[in-house]
Amino acid sequence: MSKSKSQDAALSEKHGYEFFGPIGAAGISFGLPLVCYLFAFLCNDVSGCPAPSVLHPTSLTLERLKQDVGWQGFSHLINAKAVVATIGYYAFSLVLNAVLPAQEVEGVELRSGGRLKYRMNAFASACFTLAIAAAGTLAQGADFPLWTFIWDNFIPLMTTNILISYALATYVYVSSFSVKHGNPEYRELAAGGHSGNLLYDWFIGRELNPRVKIPFCGEVDIKSWMELRPGMLGWILLDLAFMAHQYKNYGAVTASIIIVTVAQAIYVLDALYMEPAILTTIDIIADGFGFMLAFGDLAWLPFTYSIPARYLAIYPVQLSYLEIAGILAVYGLGYYIFRSANNEKNRFRTNPNDPKVAHLKYMETKSGSKLLISGWWGTARHINYLGDWIMSWAYCLPTGIAGYIVQHSSTKPDFDGQSPADGGILGGQPVVTEVVPGEARGWGMIFTYFFMVYFAVLLIHRERRDEEKCKRKYGKDWERYCEKVPYRILPGVY
Predict the structure, then answer these.
(1) Which positions, given as ranges, span the membrane (predicted)?
(2) By three-state DSSP, how is residue 404 classified?
(3) Does pLDDT of 377 surpass 60?
(4) What are the DSSP calls for 209-251, one per residue?
(5) Cis bond upstream, residue 215 (ω within 30)
(6) Which of 396, 410, 481 is nearest to 444 (CA)?
(7) What is the rounded CA–CA span in Å between residue 486 and residue 484?
(8) Per-residue pLDDT tens for 40-55?
(9) Which residues are CB-contacts of 273 (< 8 A; sequence separation ≥ 6)?
(10) Among 249, 292, 335, CA closest to 458
């Protein structure tokens, strides 16, 4: 069968709806942005986490809720400074992509038979950006404008990125209708992204690898760039801004926020350093680029994954040495599984004769692919997801039995991890905002431990999507493989 006919067959194959089809796509597209705002407003530095009024639903009023969340009107959701700063941040990242030394890597073979080339220097770009931030911090400390701007404009920055997600998804959807068979740029439609339903295709992504040519910056692969550039690094910049805010308010930085920030920074920098590995992920080789990935990369990831650090910036939890050791051990175990499994897979795919993987057993499919049935990948078909999830525990555990309320007093207590700075004048006396657990203790875990629960659901759903795609690709061979490697993520359990 010719490449053209093979591509036509793949495109015409019925993939079915994912995420419950158009209804699910609508719910995610317009519901998850609202969830971002709920997290930002209901866990705050104005009244508490959660806002005290929501703990008493029978007496809850709209006016009291507005007061508790610091509502200043819809104009508070976005401002020109945040828009300009966000666009400037994106432009700066694009320039670094163009001017810094880069590795040129070929992607996997497309249905049309071609291979796209990718310019990769995400790690160098991140290091350059963080070096500038470090220099500014050394010079100006916690008052470095980058950190204060992020804290003061957290919600406007989030709104800007959400709007960019909508705009970007619309642009790539409209652009996808210019894709023609046999084009020299190897543009293709995603196999599952042309259902014919406008909303669903806009959400899931109609074009597989949309690209755009930008003056001076050259050709940019939108999907791979959005996956690893602005959102991932933005996540760490948010964490660092929250750490600076804690220091500015309390004159010290706690081990709890250091652990969260360092653990998440290692995760991000590891992904950026191993940038070529993204080319073999399901996001790149199978999913189209639509609102799902645009919103996930630019808004959901940085602004919800950073919730524990934002919480600790306001309520600096103190950890014992034993608690610190336990959290670090958990993170170390997760990272070991995650990185060892991924390294094993990447080495085998790159060079099966590599001495580090040559001893591994595998089964060969009719399509010529080799599936590992020993080593890490012989224990579970998606063993790397287990390590990924265990690592996420270290992002949440430092928040402890989360939850606090903000109280006002006229006497400033000594730093004990629970008392921020002066807040103004009340009754002729200096006002001190004191953060205490109170009745909110435990309820804050809805926010700070959300990532652990969400990530587990995400990974299981992702694993299910992987399985469906593998069944379509390998057919009976996949059934034989599942008999040899029966567990999906957790050996002996699932």
Answers:
(1) 20-42, 82-100, 121-142, 154-174, 250-269, 289-307, 319-338, 442-461
(2) strand
(3) yes
(4) S-EEEETTTEEEEHHHHHHHTHHHHHHHHHHHHHHHHHHHHHS
(5) no
(6) 396
(7) 6
(8) 999 999 999 999 999 9
(9) 123
(10) 292
Q: Exposure of 383 by Cβ count < 10 A (0-12 exposed, 13-18 middle, 19+ buried)?
A: buried
* Pairwise CA distance, residues 420 & 312, whole Å: 12
pLDDT at residue 411, rounded to an integer: 54
Q: How far is residue 309's CA from residue 290's CA, in Å, rounded to a whole number?
A: 29
Which bin fits 179, alpha (ψ -120 to 50), beta or left (φ > 0)?
beta
Could you tell me if residue 220 is left (phi over 0), alpha (psi between -120 and 50 degrees) or otherwise beta?
Answer: beta
Q: In whole numbers, what is the pLDDT of the chain averaged over residues?
A: 89
Burial class of residue 407 (count of CB atoms within 10 Å of its CB; 0-12, 13-18, 19+): middle
Joined tokens for residue 16? 């079915």
More confident residue, 345 or 197: 197
* pLDDT value of position 370: 86
Integer Cα distance of 418 and 48 in angstroms: 12
- The pLDDT value recorded for residue 111 is 83
Question: Which amino acid, one-letter code, is at 184?
Answer: P
Tell me the HSE value of 85 on the side-chain side, using a 13 A CA sphere: 20
Is residue 69 within 8 Å of 42, Cβ to Cβ? yes
pLDDT digits (tens, 9 = 90+) for 185-224: 899 999 888 889 999 999 999 999 999 999 989 999 999 9
- Do residues 416 and 31 lie in contact, with contact meaning Cβ atoms separated by under 8 Å? no
What is the DSSP pairing of strand 370-372 with strand 362-364?
A: antiparallel
So what's the pLDDT on residue 15? 64
For residue 363, give the amino acid letter.
M
Residues above pLDDT 70, as percent of the chain: 92
CA distance 489 to 494: 6
Cα dihedral 243, 245, 246, 247 sign: positive
Indicate whether 296 pLDDT > 90. Answer: yes
Domain residue spans in the chain?
Answer: 1-316, 319-403+441-494
Above 60 in pLDDT, residue 428?
A: no
Least reliable range by pLDDT among 85-89, 108-112, 155-159, 443-447: 108-112
Distances (CA, A) of 212 to 93, 172, 218, 253: 15, 10, 8, 43
Would you state the structure tokens that stand for residue 94, as one six-digit string? 């694009």
Report the pLDDT value the prediction gives residue 6, as an integer from 0 to 100. Answer: 46
* Residue 257 contacts residue 245 (beta carbons within 8 Å): no
Q: Phi first, then psi: what are they for 422, rounded to 5°? A: -60, 145
Instruction: Decide if 378 contacts 344 (C-beta within 8 A).
Output: no
Which DSSP string corresponds to 60-107?
--HHHHHHHHT---GGGG--HHHHHHHHHHHHHHHHHHHHS--EEEE-
Report phi then psi at 436, rounded to 5. -135, 155
The pLDDT value recorded for residue 468 is: 84
Contact 49/313 with Cβ under 8 angstroms?
no
Spatial separation of the C-alpha atoms in residues 323 and 51, rounded to whole Å: 28
Find the farthest-apart pair of alpha carbons in the chain and give their distance in angstroms, rounded.
85
